[in-house]
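call fold target=Ligand-binding SRPBCC domain-containing protein
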Amino acid sequence: MTPRRLEFTSIVPRSLSETWAFFSRPENLEKLTPEDVKFDIRSPVSGVEMYEGMIIQYRVSPFPGFSADWVTEITQIKELDHFIDDQRVGPFALWHHQHFFRDMGDGRTEMKDILHYQAPLGVLGTIADWVFVHRQVKGIFTAREEAIKRLFPQ
């Protein structure tokens, strides 16, 4: 299976520095992830700003009867511009997530996510991706958009 590429753009009605301050703290990931994914951060990240090389451990249960450990590494950071996280251990064969931030000049920030992912298990993973994984991944980002609106009212 060829890795999938998804792109999502959100407008956060906050300054670039305020937006960056929120998204650069791994502890805030739980606030952005749908409850049904049962996203549980296992690493001690409270009050810690991310840094290159940071390893973050999670436990996720994306659907009933299945849970997985997930380990990502922050592989690149350019403050107030972008950061990248890559899966090291987890439910995907590939997970490469780029987060870009752009000051819109009017007190708002454009946040763009570019995600490359690939389901595991070869042909079985390809079928699972067609049946539900792709829809679920897109749903997580749709739910995140709703969380942004709730956490950052205009």
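return ok
Strands lie at 4-12, 40-41, 55-63, 66-78, 82-89, 94-103, 109-118. The helical segments are 16-23, 29-32, 122-151.
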